[in-house]
Write a structure and sequence with these properties.
With about 200 residues, the protein is an alpha/beta fold. Helices cover about 30% and strands about 20% of the residues. The longest helix is centred in the middle third of the chain and has 15 residues.
Length: about 200
């Protein structure tokens, strides 16, 4: 896969708008402001492929990107409280419509802020992915914001905090140092490109 050839293709705000799936897909999920857009930009070595915002809850659509024969879906962040009830209903329908639709979804990359214990919403998402038997991997973001001691402490706590931790694929990621980029690219290529050869 040529990671430099990614392009934004479309954004959709309701499940009814979602196009039919024609390629293998990888989805990025996580709470608001966890760093999904930043991760996408780092994976594809582009500064502004995905728009990065410091305002939580900014992404209200599913944004699709294409790289070679693989489609990447950036799901809107969850857990942002300042949304109206109608907006939350639309958001939930959009996410569920995507995740439970007839798609060639090879994996969900679930981003969790490494600096803090997983939120209640993070745990709910892990349990949902386990219960639906959807392939997924955990990406621990913002690793560069922890010192060595803090990092060790967070990694030591995770087995008690995340369900079925021993069975999870976990990658530590930093957009600043580039840690985890090669591992994630390798994982994505293994489950998309090579399986279609």
């Amino acid at each position: 896969m040529n990671w430099n050839l990614a392009e934004f293709t479309a954004a959709y705000g309701t499940a009814a708008q979602l196009p039919a799936c024609t390629t293998p897909e990888i989805a990025f999920a996580g709470r608001s402001n966890v760093g999904k857009s930043t991760l996408i930009n780092k994976l594809f070595q582009r500064k502004n492929l995905a728009r990065v915002s410091s305002v939580p809850g900014k992404t209200a659509t599913i944004n699709f990107y294409r790289c070679g024969t693989v489609t990447f879906a950036d799901l809107p962040g969850y857990g942002y409280a300042k949304r109206s009830k109608s907006e939350l209903v639309r958001w939930e329908g959009l996410i569920n419509g995507y995740l439970q639709g007839d798609r060639d979804l090879r994996a969900v990359l679930l981003l969790i802020d490494m600096r803090h214990p997983p939120t209640k919403n993070d745990i709910q998402m892990v349990n949902f992915l386990i219960d639906t038997e959807m392939p997924f991997a955990i990406v621990l973001t913002k690793a560069d914001k922890l010192n060595k001691t803090e990092r060790s402490a967070r990694l030591a706590a995770l087995p008690q905090e995340l369900p079925q931790y021993e069975d999870l694929n976990v990658t530590v990621f930093s957009s600043v140092t580039g840690e985890g980029v090669v591992s994630l690219r390798t994982l994505i290529e293994e489950i998309t490109v090579e399986s279609d050869q």
